[in-house]
Amino acid sequence: MYADIVVPVARGPFTFRIGEGAAGICPGMGIEVRLGARKRYMGIVWRLYDRPPGFATKTAGRLMGDAPLLTPAQMELWKWMAEYYMCTLGDVMRFAMPAALKPAGLTEEEFRRVEYRPATVRYVKLGPSVADAQALHVALEGLHRAKAQQAALLAFCAAFPDGGVGGGELPRSALSAPSVVLNKLEEKGIFSFFDREAAVGAEMPFDRAQVPLAPLSPAQTDALEEVRREFVSQDCVLLYGVTGSGKTELYMHLMADALARGKSVLYMMPEIAMTSQLVARVRSVFGSRVTLYHSRLGERRRAEIYRRLLASGGGELVLGVRSALFLPLPSFGLVIVDEEHDQSYKQAEPAPRYNARDCAVWMARRSGAKCLLASATPSIESYVNATGGKYGFVTLAERYGDGRLPRIAVSDSLRAFKRGERRLHFDKALLDRMAATLGSGRQVMLFQNRRGFAPWVECTQCGWVAHCPRCSVTLTYHKLGDRMKCHLCGYSSALPAACPRCGTLAPGLMGFGTEKVEEEVASLFPTARILRLDRDTAASPARYERIVADFERGEADVLVGTQMVTKGFDFPKLGLVGILHADNLLNYPDFRASERAYQTMTQVAGRAGRTDAGGEVVIQTMQPDHPVVRQVQSFDYEGMVRSQLVERSAFGYPPYGKLVVVNLRHRDERLLGAAAAWVAARMRTLFGERVYGPHPPVVDKIGGENYLEILLKIENGRSPARAKELLAEILKEAAGHGEYRRVFIFCDVDPQ
Ligand SMILES: Nc1ncnc2c1ncn2[C@@H]1O[C@H](COP(=O)(O)OP(=O)(O)OP(=O)(O)O)[C@@H](O)[C@H]1O
Ligand SMILES: [Zn+2]
User: Fold this and answer.
1) 470: CA distance to ligand 2 center in Å?
2) What are the DSSP calls for 588-657, one per residue?
3) What is this model's ipTM?
4) In Å, what is the CA distance from 109 to each residue of 94, 103, 112, 480?
5) What is the pLDDT of residue 206?
6) What is the CATH code of the structural domain delimited by 2-114?
7) CA–CA separation, 583 and 412 (whole Å)
8) How far is CA 124 from the centre of its chain?
9) Looking at the chain, which residues constitute the CATH 3.40.1440.60 domain(s)?
10) What positions does the entry give for Zn(2+) 1 binding (predicted)?
11) Which of 236, 250, 616, 716 shows the smallest number of beta carbons within 10 Å?
């Protein structure tokens, strides 16, 4: 027999002969194989057949375990992902399976050391010499001189109405007798011991949690009913609910529905860190059914969860980030994708470069489950799918309870500057609102999407700017540590005392990051207690959670932060949100820049005034008349979508077409350029005008490697699958080309 076996490397599947010892082999099982002379992997049996292939094959090693490690649904997902995202099954396997479940190593010992063995618990039952009540009686009598043994046997028997002769089993630890005593009983055939795989996952006793579901407001009830109605005819529904409308409570009802039917539920969120508030809420209702899954869990824990779910019969509730998509979920009934617009659902690097939201939609459709996408700022793609009838569409337009959408004011920073109404990086309009808010004992949140002190260092005399020697970005000056740092590769250097080019002036610290904002707030409001939330202050998840919890408890008055503050927070005392420099968001050279700017500003603004009517937002910008600023100010999501659709249709961008970006990377700029030109020319022979580039991406050098990209637009109505097949042929040619094969080339399908 032969098998195609998927191995967690970028090539394959590989064909192996299956030896004698592999009785019971079937697709989805783990099997030990060797690639090259020495390296051992656990591979996944993908396909079995009898006809020998027309080439020499090696023989696979032992089967690992006696049941498949993948459900048929998982195998289908892997296959679809590899095709759709133009990568290998091995690429998918690398990410889809917890490392502890797929050991690899050079030697047998190394391999076995990492191999996952589930934790076990020792159990005891009656042994061969105690087959019935009569024998038990005899055994007890026989122990009248060995009191400790007799006591242990009696303790065992007491646990069962029939004394245990009917096959009763107890954990060994329940007997609290010393090993010598138990060993003697085993020697006499009175006890026998065995191991059982430890039950994992239950982190909270099931019956301890159970707070009832919250009663819904009339608007929430209507929306919930509408979602349920839409699910009758649609696999996928988009819930467009403004910030603070209480979408989470809706999810809880839907999850309870599915669980009550014995189905399993996957609740996906962009980042687990932002969700401590939410996790606590879900746990309070569903208790020990909730399994958290994210990359910060240890490898062993991930493997345990995987195995437990694989064996489960349904009724599971998994809360996780994008990688939770790869868990086995027998009896899958519902997937919820919270903040569906969020970019972190897309894995940018490395392969598989998948979008977990899109995979969730596919999976639900495939397995007859339901998928709810939800956001206060849906992605344009999802919105178009929903309003076009491809998905169901439900709106929740009002905030829950006393919350009102905040008042948003726009401040023209240039004008403020000209009138002398600007201090440091703060316009008078924002300063006034800050003073009033702090004066009334409420909290302020300030958003600036740059960390560090000064995002660039420039000679004020000759214009020289400090760049990373390895990447095409400026170095950011960090006051803490007094160094200039590259945010891409980690390179750092001291601040030069004089300009390296003209040697005259001391270089100027330009722009402003969160570190500087914090310092300025301290000088403007000397008594305010300030916290900062960015990658520098929240380097570990524990520190992140501390900052959020401290702010939530009111232990600080001002929270300064980057993107990190835009997500999902619910701070009851937050009265004012300030966006310090909206222009950073507006001027990004990408066709999604306006959509993203709208989403980011609306989300961060949405943190204000969630529990009472007093929320306020001030947006500082040099482009107060920019359409996106206007749209954010008037909560005009539809207006934003309409104007973006006009632009996108003119250029054939999604949703009017699909994009595939061919990325090329090499240290040698000349070789890279030649390879890219060659690939682009080959693409043009097939796709003509639909090919754009090669051109350098926004950041075209990282860690000493140069990047070029070629864009392929596939207009609606053309088969993306066919286009990808043709493209894959070209890339195969490139991989076989004498010179260009040295260039690393990959495709990014549906780039974000
Ligand atoms: N039915 C309800 N009963 C009690 N409290 C509710 C209910 N619905 C919502 N809330 C409360 O209202 C607040 C906002 O709800 P939630 O955080 O779910 O909003 P959201 O729609 O997820 O907003 P965002 O998109 O901004 O994250 C929370 O404090 C939540 O506890
Ligand atoms: Zn760098």
Assistant:
1) 5
2) -SSTTHHHHHHHHHHHHHTTTTSSSS--EEEEEES-TT-HHHHHHHTT-HHHHHHHHHHHHHHHT-TTSE
3) 0.96
4) 22, 11, 5, 46
5) 40
6) 3.40.1440.60
7) 11
8) 43
9) 2-114
10) 459, 462, 499, 502
11) 716
Q: For residues 591 and 394, give the distance between their C-alpha atoms in angstroms, rounded to a whole number.
A: 27
Residue 210 is predicted with a pLDDT of 61
> What is the identity of the amino acid at 229?
R
Q: How far, in Å, CA of 750 to CA of 743, rounded?
A: 22
**Alpha-carbon span 731 to 180, nearest angstrom:** 68
Task: Output the CA 457–ligand 2 centroid distance in Å.
Answer: 15
Q: Which tokens is 632 given?
A: 């954010």
What does the alpha-carbon distance between residue 505 and residue 483 come to, in Å, rounded to a whole number?
A: 18
> Is 291 in contact with 318 (CB distance < 8 Å)?
yes
Q: Where in the chain is the domain with CATH 3.40.50.300?
A: 206-396, 407-453+512-646
Which tokens go with 176? 């609290």
The finding on whether 476 has its CB within 6 A of some atom of ligand 1 is: no
Tokens (6 digits) for 602: 């609306």
Which tokens in the block code for residue 139? 């055994």
DSSP 205-227: -GGG--PPPPPPPHHHHHHHHHH
Q: Which ligand is nearest to the CA of 476?
A: 2
Q: What are the residue ranges in the chain where pLDDT is below 50?
A: 201-209
Tokens of 78: 């892997």
Annotated ligand binding at 359? The verdict is no
Residues near 539 by Cβ (< 8 Å), separated by ≥ 6? none
Q: Tell which residue, 398, 397, 394, has the closest CA to residue 232.
A: 394
| Fold classification of 657-749 (topology level) | Alpha-Beta Plaits (3.30.70)
Long-range contacts of 294-300, Cβ-Cβ distance < 8 Å, separation of 24 or more: 294/320, 294/321, 294/323, 294/324, 295/321, 295/323, 296/272, 296/541, 299/98, 299/99, 299/100, 300/100, 300/116
| Residue pair 319/292 in contact by the 8 Å Cβ criterion | yes
DSSP lists the bridge partners of residue 709 as 663, 695
**Residue 26 annotated as part of some ligand binding site:** no
Q: Are 726 and 679 in contact (CB under 8 A)?
A: no
How is residue 408 written in tokens? 């948003």
What span, in angstroms and rounded, lies between the C-alpha atoms of 50 and 18?
Answer: 10
Which residue has tokens 């104007």? 643
Q: Is 241 in the pocket of ligand 1 (CB under 6 A)?
A: yes
**Helix, strand, coil share of the chain (percent; to 5):** 40, 25, 40
Q: Tell which residue, 735, 734, 661, 717, has the closest CA to residue 691.
A: 661
CA distance linking residue 259 with residue 177, whole number of Å: 41
Q: Distance (Å, rounded) from C-alpha 602 to C-alpha 408?
A: 10
Looking at residue 454, the DSSP 8-state letter turns out to be B
Q: Is 157 annotated as a binding residue?
A: no
CATH 3.40.50.300 for the 407-453+512-646 domain, yes or no? yes
Cβ neighbours of 208 (radius 10 Å): 8
Residue bearing tokens 């250029």: 651
In degrees and rounded to multiples of 5, residue 100 shows phi and psi of -70, -15
- Residue 44 in contact with residue 92, Cβ under 8 Å? no
Pairing of strands 443-447, 483-485: unpaired
What gap in Å lies between CA 259 and CA 253, rounded to an integer? 10
Quote the CA–CA distance of 19 and 29 in Å, as a whole number. Answer: 15
The domain 206-396 is classified under which CATH number: 3.40.50.720, 3.40.50.1820, 3.90.870.10, 3.40.50.300? 3.40.50.300
